[in-house]
């Protein structure tokens, strides 16, 4: 609910000293988010950042909004409760590839399936950073890390394919250091009703430095990236036929194909379809039940006769 | 807040800092480098690699070089926010504060 509140990026900086490794991509994402927040026109007390555990999950400390550094992998669950109980809030989840896809894999897919009004920012650096460099659910096969000295045997998750498979209504990808692109994707995610999943390629310069260099280097990025824009044509390969990108296509097939593509790597919004948001449905259902049957009585329910007897 | 390149960089310019910057916001002038105050994301990667300790966090800039904050800001008055130094390469001018420095012998 945009209002005429005039805030600046500075207003979204907290007084906490930022404690990521010097050069970490998280700084660039933080600066872009703080730069974008004033556009929302929402008072800081009506914005909440919920995180799980990991380097990225320090994010709420640095935002001068409400926030919660919560339980490993459980940020989507906590944020679901918040968004349902307080539909007036702007609720954001900050998570990483380990937090979202390994420890919290279940919570993530069910939040997406339900389409709760959340904006999930998934910082994907393809490594466990906080615990010092073990392979993560998005690390490529054969990756040598401290926990895979002879190379990882696991097939990595592709977060956007997973999200589309979990019925996500909004799926996008962007890059930490591309401020303009990242901001544009945040803008579209914020405007979406329901769960928006934004995968952000984020450089961990300590344990997985340069993972996205070909996508960033001005000499290689034009060939390595497929910049998606709604209504604009793209090709899956140089000699393939042109397809007009339609984020609103109810059939997820084209978006799924894009989510599988590696060369070139698509960035931008892959899918953005309208579907009722869970919090709206839930609150409507509750209001309907109250109108029909009157407000409930919790004490009476607890002391009621509808009970089970457990026999030993 | 931003990081600032101060007087010790003038005529040194070894560019170690450019390698480290994750957002490519350190621009090369004729005699010094300049950090874009709006593009810098305060990550602190450049500061420890500078061999002559020319880079400071804005608030920690030594008193004698406080004006370099303005030099870094004003250098971009004409350029705006190009969003990446690599594509521009050498910009053949300097802020007057830098241009007015005596030439440092190599
Ligand atoms: S370990 Fe990696 S992801 Fe974590 S703060 Fe350091 S650079 Fe960033
Ligand atoms: S590392 Fe220091 S001396 Fe070298 S270019 Fe950067 S600021 Fe100048
Ligand atoms: S602090 Fe980080 S973003 Fe700013 S100039 Fe230095 S390396 Fe670049």
UniProtKB/TrEMBL annotation, chain A:
Tree of life domain: Bacteria
GO annotation, biological process: cellular respiration
Pfam families, per database record: TPP_enzyme_C
Transmembrane stretches, start-end: none
GO molecular-function term, one example from the UniProt record: magnesium ion binding
Signal peptide from the UniProt entry: none
Keywords, alphabetical: Oxidoreductase
Domain Thiamine pyrophosphate enzyme TPP-binding, chain residue ranges per copy: 53-200
PANTHER family: 2-OXOGLUTARATE OXIDOREDUCTASE SUBUNIT KORB (PTHR48084:SF4), 2-OXOGLUTARATE OXIDOREDUCTASE SUBUNIT KORB-RELATED (PTHR48084)
Record-given protein name: 2-oxoacid:ferredoxin oxidoreductase subunit beta
The species this protein was found in: Streptomyces spongiae
UniProtKB/TrEMBL annotation, chain B:
GO function term, MF aspect, one: metal ion binding
Co-factor note (free text): Binds 1 [3Fe-4S] cluster.
InterPro entries, per the entry: 4Fe4S_Fe-S-bd, 4Fe4S_Fe_S_CS, 7Fe_ferredoxin, FdxA_Actino, RnfB_subfamily
Ranges where the 4Fe-4S ferredoxin-type domain occurs: 31-60
Cofactor: [3Fe-4S] cluster; [4Fe-4S] cluster
Keywords (A to Z) from UniProt: 3Fe-4S, 4Fe-4S, Electron transport, Iron, Iron-sulfur, Metal-binding, Repeat, Transport
Gene3D superfamilies: 3.30.70.20
A Pfam family annotated for this UniProt entry: Fer4
Function field: Ferredoxins are iron-sulfur proteins that transfer electrons in a wide variety of metabolic reactions.
The name this protein goes by in its record: Ferredoxin
């Amino acid at each position: 609910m945009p209002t005429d509140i005039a805030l600046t990026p500075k207003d979204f900086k907290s007084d906490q000293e930022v404690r990521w490794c010097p050069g970490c991509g998280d700084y660039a994402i933080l600066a872009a988010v703080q730069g974008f927040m004033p556009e929302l026109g929402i008072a800081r007390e009506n914005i909440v950042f919920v995180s799980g555990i990991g380097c990225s999950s320090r994010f709420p400390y640095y935002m001068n909004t409400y926030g919660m550094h919560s339980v490993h992998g459980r940020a989507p669950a906590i944020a679901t409760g918040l968004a349902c109980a307080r539909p007036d809030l702007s609720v954001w989840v900050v998570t990483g590839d380990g937090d979202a896809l390994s420890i919290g894999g279940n919570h993530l897919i069910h939040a997406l399936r339900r389409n709760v009004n959340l904006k999930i920012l998934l910082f994907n650096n393809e490594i466990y950073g906080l615990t010092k460099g073990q392979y993560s659910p998005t690390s490529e096969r054969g990756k040598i890390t401290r926990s895979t000295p002879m190379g990882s045997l696991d097939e990595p998750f592709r977060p956007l394919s997973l999200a589309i498979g979990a019925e996500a209504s909004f799926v996008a990808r962007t890059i930490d250091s591309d401020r303009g692109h990242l901001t544009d994707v945040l803008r579209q995610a914020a405007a979406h009703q329901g769960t928006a999943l934004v995968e952000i390629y984020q450089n961990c310069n300590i344990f997985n430095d340069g993972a996205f260099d070909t996508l960033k280097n001005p000499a290689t990025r034009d060939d390595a990236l497929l910049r998606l824009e709604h209504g604009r044509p793209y090709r899956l390969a140089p000699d393939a036929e042109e397809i007009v990108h339609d984020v609103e296509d109810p059939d997820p097939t084209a978006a799924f194909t894009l989510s599988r593509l590696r060369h070139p790597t698509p960035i931008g919004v892959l899918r953005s379809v309208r579907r009722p948001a869970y919090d709206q449905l839930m609150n409507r259902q509750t209001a309907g039940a109250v109108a029909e049957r009157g407000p409930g009585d919790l004490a009476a329910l607890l002391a009621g006769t509808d009970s089970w007897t457990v026999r030993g | 807040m931003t990081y600032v390149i101060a007087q010790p960089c003038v005529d040194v310019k070894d560019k170690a800092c450019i390698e480290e910057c994750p957002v490519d916001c350190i621009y090369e002038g004729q005699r010094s480098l300049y950090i874009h105050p709006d593009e810098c994301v305060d990550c602190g990667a450049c500061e420890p690699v500078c061999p002559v300790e020319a880079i400071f966090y804005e608030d920690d800039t030594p008193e004698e070089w406080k004006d370099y904050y303005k030099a870094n800001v004003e250098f971009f008055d004409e350029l705006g926010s190009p969003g990446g130094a690599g594509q521009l390469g050498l910009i053949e001018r300097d802020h007057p504060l830098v241009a007015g420095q005596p030439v440092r012998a190599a």
